[in-house]
Amino acid sequence: MAVLDQEQIARFRRDGYLVVPDAVTPQQLAAMRAEIAGWVDESRAHSTPFGPPTIDGRPRFDMGAEHSAERPALRRVNNPSDISAAYRTVMENARVVDMVADLIGPDVKFHHCKINLKLPGARTEVAYHQDFAYTPHTNDDIVTALIFIDDVDEENGCLMVVPGSHLGPMHSLFDGERFTGAVAPAAEAGMKAASVACLGQAGSVCLMHTKLLHGSAPNHSTASRGLYICVYTAADAVPIARNPMPSPNEGRIVRGREARFARLTETRVELPKQPKTASFFTVQGQESKTG
Ligand SMILES: O=C(O)CCC(=O)C(=O)O
């Protein structure tokens, strides 16, 4: 069933992103928020990344270096749909999945998911990048769905995107031989100047094309900013690099059916280096809490 109208689909194709309210039900939102509150509390007892490991043996939960029991800075949960029914339901069945099917369907496959959390007082920021450079596939019919778990405004570290940049070149995330996971600082200044804020109430989603340039600033407010980020691909988009966040659900068909053929688009893409740490924040130079 179509959820997005033709005007919204045309806007996504032109701008590379679309913010839509009511991507999940109030009940789904409440269940996700309750789960996060529990995880934040649990993090108070830890001084290094922790939790039931992901299938490649990395910690599920990651905190910034500023984390303490009194002021938790839990900043990342890797593949929460592996460990939580609330997140699994949204990943497979929420209205957002139908929106993604309207953009790249009818056959849609799950790739990975994560929570990026910016608690008040945390220093987490995201340097500008294009997701396709982390997760290259045989074609770019790939949508990153960033679901707002909290109200998102200009003060609490909203996602910033460069409209139309998905139609431009891929930017290197290397500094010489080193994978920095971010565009060069000189290029980033121009991108920041051209970027717009993605704002909305909790329960909204920003549907983002995998090649759109984006980043975000730290949270300067007293309100939390959580995003549940699910990456979906067309069923005939096949990964050409290892999943940076593997999960037993990788490749699960969430709408339509499995593909018999891979679709290849002729292009050139620099291959990423895979992270060994709990989250990409360390790849981008923001250390984890170390005890
Ligand atoms: O958390 C954010 O503000 C941005 C997330 C992001 O860029 C990503 O996970 O690729």
Give an account of the 3D structure:
- The protein is α+β, with helices and mostly antiparallel strands.
- Helices cover 21% and strands 22% of the residues.
- The protein has a single domain (6-242, 261-273), classed as q2cbj1_9rhob like domain (Jelly Rolls, Sandwich), CATH 2.60.120.620.
- The chain has 6 helices and 14 strands.
- Bound molecules: 2-oxoglutaric acid.
- The site of 2-oxoglutaric acid (AKG) has 8 residues, from strand 12 and strand 13.
- 2-oxoglutaric acid is lined by residues 116, 126, 131, 159, 214, 216, 227, 229.
Low-confidence stretches: none
* Count of distinct structural domains: 1
* Largest sheet composition: 8 strands, antiparallel
CATH fold description: Jelly Rolls
List the total number of helices: 6
- The strand count comes to 14
N-to-C SSE string, H for helix and E for strand: HEHEEHHEEEEEEHEEEEEH
Distance N to C terminus: 50 Å
Percent of residues in helices comes to 10-25%
Per CATH, the superfamily is: q2cbj1_9rhob like domain
Enumerate the distinct ligands.
2-oxoglutaric acid
Return Rg in Å: 18 Å
Query: Can you identify the CATH class?
Result: Mainly Beta
Q: Can you tag this structure with a few keywords?
A:
binds 2-oxoglutaric acid; alpha+beta; 291 residues; Jelly Rolls; 21% helix; 22% strand
Topology:
Blueprint: H1 6-15, E1 17-20, H2 26-43, E2 61-63, E3 74-78, H3 85-93, H4 95-104, E4 108-118, E5 126-129, E6 142-148, E7 159-161, E8 174-175, E9 178-179, H5 185-193, E10 196-198, E11 205-209, E12 214-216, E13 225-234, E14 253-255, H6 280-283
Antiparallel strand pairs: 1-11, 2-3, 3-4, 4-13, 4-14, 5-12, 6-11, 6-13, 7-10, 7-12, 8-9
Helix pairs in contact: 2-3, 3-4
2-oxoglutaric acid binds at residues 116, 126, 131, 159, 214, 216, 227, 229.
